[in-house]
Target: Cytochrome c
Amino acid sequence: MRSLFHKTIGFCLLGLAVVSCQDKDDPNYQYMPDMYESVGYETYGEYKVFEKGQEAKLPVEGSVARGWLPYDYENNPQGYADAKANLTNPLPYTQDNLAEGRALYTIYCAVCHGDKGAGKGILVEREKILGVPSYDDAGRAITEGSVYHVMYYGINNMGSYAAQTSIKERWQIDHYVMSLKGQLEGKPEREYVEEGDVQKNLLPSRADANLYEDAGDVNSESSNENNQTESQE
Ligand code: HEC
Model:
């Protein structure tokens, strides 16, 4: 009886010793380790064979993400001046593009610039923001290129709209802003062109832009024969 008691205690201690050695953070016995630990490199794993021990590599310098193409004008006074002088709207001036531009303008710009573009948006009326110019401000003499440029980078108190809008949307807004400017200056309405007339690359500066045919809205509307190249700057 006594020895059975001792044996039981001894057995329990032994069991405890075995169980307590187990590390909770580690898998227990692995009968087929290959199934737990893959032979291949894990996507974000750390391995000595790689530079800086990091499996995930940075994209090669100069890589261009899908759906995005670089904008060639820099965010400085020179870039602004170049865009103002040289960059033109590649979208045809159709009724559809203008209507889209108007809708987007009302969403993004009208709070400050006002529905007519005279710089009297609701935030200006409530004095939440100051210094919003009218689009016919002679001193600024905005152009298609400068409007695109300030939407891309922002200017002083005005933020950038590059994250909220696509390339095509910005050009649509651009058409609408220029039409507001024309109205403020009392110019006659610009005539619409028919859809499909002139169609240029949305990013005229890229000679190889049609390499990226699947680049979202960038090229979806331009057919190949119209993908002519232009030299800008
Ligand atoms: C938060 C208010 C606000 C919003 C929203 C806003 N702007 Fe502006 N915008 C300004 C201010 C302020 C300036 C004057 C900046 C400066 O000091 O030059 C300005 C200036 C401009 C100019 C003149 C820039 C130049 O070349 O001198 C244009 C064009 C313009 N905005 C277009 C737009 C468009 C298009 C949108 C919508 C996508 C927009 N803005 C949205 C506040 C705003």
The chain has a mean pLDDT of 83. Residues 2-20 form the longest helix (19 residues). The two ends are 101 Å apart (CA to CA).
